[in-house]
Design brief:
heterodimer; A: about 400 residues; mainly alpha; 2 domains; 3-stranded antiparallel beta sheet; globular; B: mainly alpha; about 65% helix; about 5% strand
Chain lengths: ~400, ~400
């Protein structure tokens, strides 16, 4: 440390351009919005004393798309495509949450097969998102190879998504009233082939990291935050579970038949970066369990609800039945009317509690859609976690938050 | 006159070989890391991407030479020059092989044998830190400054355990000349100072290697250029050939550390086991094995082009294997082969570690140097001197 002090004249000469502040002179470091580790366009203003952070201020808004406003000019079914773009690492979770909210307003009953497919695909989405989190988190801390191993598995998940929906990322596969398309031929083998090897791949990542002394040194005791602070800031998801609170919307307020699946909610009490790492790794294993159960117990039946005014009719019926043609025309041109009212639906997205608040004024377009994105709450923890730590810890802490800027700036 | 000519020829050869090695080391690194990470690595420029280094050099030379307006020009330009000069300088005292007789001239495969060779390498390598520290300071960029600060602290701290680790085998060799250090070690594994009785230097070997990783700013000690924290660290503001100079300095330092490790601990050009037991056949056997592998994959090509390129490689390898069997060639090349094999293995370790480990944090790095490596190195030195004094 002595060497830092001998070099401090150089520090001051750079600092001279900064506005004068009272007390000892400090360096203000602008991290982002184009910094390799801010995962998108987050900007952090760090006030440094040597390498120690005195003050940290996150600044968001660089990815603001006005997407919430855009919901108001699209009809209900069209708006599904917008939800993909909010949290682009977990598109299906957003599809699901929005569909559930509107279906609640409509009072639709979703057939079991569609519900189980929804569970299966959202859990694959969780795996997808957690894999990206692990890869980027590891590469931030310097373990390069884990990133590419994670992307190997992610690639397979994206292929499965493509198989179902024709799209790798912007899936829009869940629609109000069920699924967009019938599940494709051969999907069972594809998913089974993936989910059978996946747990061994998680072992592989753990081999590289879990007991690695450097990894433990970089993550254990870093980015600590008390449970009370987290609750005050509205933090949800794996971060909260790593602080010891067993809160998971899948168990607390089950949706889409999650109550019929057998899985654990992993928790830790240390509330540091390492605990969050352990929680998410265990969540990957649990998600794999859910996918296996969904695959084995998949019920038969239709994939859309029996609601001709909402769900597009089958192609064959349109050619033979007059009503089907009329419904098709009405849905495509005008959309369907949703009864007046407002509803809040929360689900457990990979990042935490994702909520859609939908207000309807009785027309075919939403009056207002507000999204409670988990990343926004989680990001508020930045100053709490990093103040008083080193620059390297900022990177580790940011990685452990697993935020997506699309989800933060809406 | 004769001395000058021979020295110039040697310098030219060493420079040419070293530059090629540096360029291809980068190719090897990219290939090895790629295969660790389930990728292909460079594969477009030339067969198996073999011309990639050439393409990189052309690209870097032809890039615009950008000097940002806010830099301190003199030091900004001096820094890469300093870094690369100091990195290349230490190669001049490295002995690559034993004495050879070519065209009637007897000479050593070494540019010059200083009687204080070890000290020279240490001195020059510690000058290298100026390049990085100045680059960080002169860039007038906060990330670069932090990178420069980190590296000066890190390199100065790790020089201590490194020097102590060197001191122990020096006690055994009783000389500072690199050539004599190699000569003091024998021609089999247990006569190298790493395993040599009465004081096997396994511990100082490990300490030296760890400190070497830190000195060269490689993973897990690559804090000065930790791209996920400091963007590109001390060379954030450098582009084109000035960037290439830093890059070259890093690789040259890697080569120096690998060479020094093999000289100090692994017996330099000495073979793994004596010639009388047939160590001269190891190299031909290895090349023949490589040739057979190439031939096998050429007959079962993964890609269409492999059908033509791999048999050519196989032919080259078999040719080398045959040539190495000829006694006059073997006498000259065998020491070079053993030296290159040891240094090459260590270089592979550098790359291997980069593909595996995460990065230390700044304070942990310093703690590791001062609280762990330093005491262990001192202890090792004491034990070694005791053993040397008693036996």
């Amino acid at each position: 440390m002595a060497d830092i002090e001998t070099a401090s004249p150089a520090l001051e000469s750079v600092d001279a351009a900064e506005p004068e502040s009272t007390g000892p002179r400090r360096m203000v470091l602008n991290m982002g919005p184009q910094h390799p580790s801010t995962h998108g366009v987050l900007r952090l203003l760090l006030e440094l004393d040597g390498e120690t952070i005195v003050k940290a201020e996150p600044e968001i808004g660089y990815l603001h798309t006005g997407i919430e406003k855009e919901f108001e000019v699209k009809n209900y079914q069209q708006a599904v495509t917008l939800t993909d773009r909010i949290d682009y690492l977990a598109p299906l979770s957003n599809n699901l949450c929005y569909c559930l909210a509107v279906e609640k307003l409509l009072g639709l009953e979703i057939p079991p097969k569609a519900q189980w497919i929804r569970v299966l695909l959202t859990e694959l989405t969780r795996l997808n998102s957690h894999l990206i989190w692990l890869g980027t988190h590891a590469i931030d801390i310097g373990a390069m190879s884990v990133f590419l191993y994670c992307f190997r598995e992610r690639e397979e998940i994206l292929r499965i998504f493509e198989m179902f929906s024709g799209q790798r990322m912007m899936t829009s596969y869940f629609r109000i009233g069920g699924l967009a398309l019938a599940p494709p031929r051969g999907w069972r083998q594809r998913v089974k082939g993936f989910i059978d090897v996946f747990p061994s791949r998680v072992d592989e990542y753990e081999d590289l990291l879990t007991k690695n002394r450097i990894w433990i040194g970089r993550t254990r005791g870093v980015g600590k935050m008390t449970l009370e602070d987290m609750l005050d800031l509205g933090i949800t998801g794996p971060m909260l579970r790593a602080a010891g609170l067993k809160q998971d919307a899948r168990k607390d307020q089950p949706y889409s038949s999650y109550d019929k699946f057998d899985f654990e909610i992993p928790t830790r009490v240390e509330s540091d970066v390492y605990a969050r790492y352990q929680v998410r790794i265990e969540e990957m294993r649990q998600s794999a369990r859910i996918v296996t159960q969904a695959l084995e117990g998949m019920p038969e039946g239709p994939h859309t609800a029996d609601a001709p005014k909402v769900v597009l009719p089958e192609r064959e019926k349109m050619k033979t039945q007059m009503e089907a043609l009329i419904y098709h025309f009405k849905i495509v041109t005008e959309g369907f009317r949703v009864p007046e009212g407002e509803v809040y639906q929360a689900i457990e997205s990979p990042r935490g509690e994702l909520g859609y608040y939908v207000v309807s004024d009785g027309t075919s377009k939403p009056y207002r859609v507000h999204i409670h994105g988990p990343s926004f709450g989680n990001l508020q923890a930045v100053p709490h976690m990093v103040e008083g730590t080193l620059i390297a810890d900022v990177i580790a802490s940011l990685g452990s938050m697993d935020f997506v800027l699309g989800d933060t700036d809406r | 006159m004769e001395f000058i000519v021979i020295s110039l020829v040697k310098a030219a050869i060493v420079a040419a070989v070293l530059m090629t090695t540096l360029a291809y080391l980068q190719w090897v690194e990219r290939k090895v890391i790629a295969h660790i990470q389930l990728r292909m690595g460079p594969s477009r420029v030339g067969p198996h991407g073999l011309l990639q280094p050439l393409a990189d050099v052309i690209k870097l030379i032809t890039k615009e030479d950008l000097i940002p307006p806010h830099v301190n020009k003199f030091f900004y330009l001096l820094a890469p020059f300093l870094a690369v000069t100091m990195a290349l300088l230490s190669i001049s005292v490295i002995p690559f092989g034993s004495e050879v007789e070519l065209f009637g001239y007897k000479t050593w495969m070494q540019m010059t044998d200083l009687n204080v060779g070890v000290l020279f390498v240490l001195a020059v390598s510690s000058m290298g830190v100026y390049g990085i520290a100045l680059a960080g300071w002169a860039s007038n960029n906060k990330y670069a400054l932090l990178g420069g600060l980190r590296s000066s602290a890190q390199m100065i701290s790790y020089e201590l355990p490194m020097s102590l680790a060197i001191a122990a085998p020096l006690l055994l060799a009783n000389t500072l000349s690199l050539r004599e250090i190699v000569q003091s070690q024998g021609d089999h594994l247990f006569a190298w100072s790493i395993f040599k009785l009465p004081a096997p230097q396994l511990i100082s070997f490990v300490i030296f290697l760890i400190a070497g990783f830190a000195e060269t700013n490689r993973v897990p000690f690559d804090l000065p250029e930790a791209e996920n924290e400091l963007v590109a660290g001390f060379h954030t503001e450098y582009s084109s050939m000035k960037f290439a100079a830093f890059f070259m300095a890093e690789y040259a330092n890697m080569v120096t550390v690998s060479c020094m490790t093999s000289i100090l601990f692994l017996g330099g050009w000495q073979p793994l086991f004596p010639v009388s037991l047939g160590s001269n056949f190891v190299a031909p056997a290895l090349f023949a094995l490589g040739g057979s592998l190439c031939l096998y994959h050429g007959l079962h090509p993964a890609r269409r082009k492999d059908r033509y390129t791999l048999p050519v490689f196989a032919a080259i390898f078999f040719g080398i294997a045959l040539a190495l069997l000829a006694p006059p060639v073997a006498r000259v090349v065998m020491p070079l082969f053993w030296f290159a094999a040891k240094a090459g293995f260590l270089l592979f370790c550098f790359i291997w570690v980069r593909g595996t480990l995460p990065r230390f944090r700044y304070d942990q790095l310093m703690g590791f140097a001062w609280k762990f490596l330093f005491p262990v190195a001192v202890l090792n030195l004491l034990v070694t001197s005791l053993l040397v004094a008693v036996f």
